[in-house]
Amino acid sequence: MNREFDDLLHELKQSLKIAENDYDLNNIRSQFLGKKSRISKMMKQIGSIEPAKRPLFGKKINEIKQQIDSLIVSRADEIEQHQYEETLAKEQVDLTMPGVQPPVGSLHPLTLMRRELEDIFISLGFDVVEGYDIEDEYHNFDALNTPENHPARNEMDTFYIKASNTRPKQSNNRLLLRSQTSTMQVRTMENNQPPIKMVSIGRCYRNDKPDKSHSPFFHQMEGLTVDEGINFLDLRDILIKFARLMFGESIQWRFRPHYFPFTEPSAEFDIRCFKCYGEGCSICKQSGWIEIGGAGMVDTNVFDIVGIDSEKYTGYAFGLGIDRITMLKYRIPDIRLLFENDLRFLEQFR
Hints:
Strand content: 15-25%
CATH architecture of the largest domain: 2-Layer Sandwich
Order of helices and strands: HHHHHEEHEEHEEHEEEHEHH
Number of strands: 10
CATH class of the largest domain: Alpha Beta
Structural class: alpha+beta
CATH superfamily of the largest domain: Bira Bifunctional Protein, Domain 2
Shape: rod-shaped
Helix content: 25-40%
CATH topology of the largest domain: BirA Bifunctional Protein, domain 2
Distance between the termini: 80 Å
Number of domains: 2
Number of helices: 11
């Protein structure tokens, strides 16, 4: 019987040597201590042994079971320690290696441009005021000297907000998504007396068909100065100074006569095309120039509407297209890239 016990322990030790994980150990425990194991069969033989030898045989069986269990537990500790050491080796950090920069976000190019514009005009003595995305027809058109039959007031060009059925319809002052930040020059003059020097940056909406240089949702900056003795040269000088601060001293610019209901005289302000440099391309529509804003002297009718003495004060106003300025500044060929949220594009502005 002792020979059989020795063979059993030898077989166990050989099995434990090749065990590599808990799964192997569970199989070994079942093989040597389970219901169908050799130990279990030996226990069933006790009834056939002489009564005088049964206690000694039973004691030996229990000692062998304890020894088997002890060897299995010992091997489990060895495997656990080995796995722990392997994990430490794999996860060891070499403090002499350079660190890895985790990916970080960045400001949107329009946000970068907005902040740069604010810094430029604050340095030129302008105050920054906030506006409203939802405006009324009075501030968006009437107070800006825009006649009722003007094409801009047509529903094909402007996004009007339908009045609720529970409210009386006010056809003479409907709500709309503002089509220009010029509304803020009216609100500023309504609440402040000259001298006034302000800019307002915000979102605007027009029913334009999207293409490389147009979008129904865009950003604009309104500028306004009102004081005694203001003239068109002051307007020209401030826009040229802005252009040089934004694009560099060598930037090419031009003014073109134009018409706006709320300024007289009026002009459009253009910058040399960033893609073709004046030769003509699809971005500038073969003209060599890109319009970035309109400007002019505030019409006396606007002063009369808001209650400012047009005999004493004069002023200029300008509206700049922030999206087009951003395209010029960062050489962006298509305005639609600014609104598509493509990470491959946005990651370039970190």
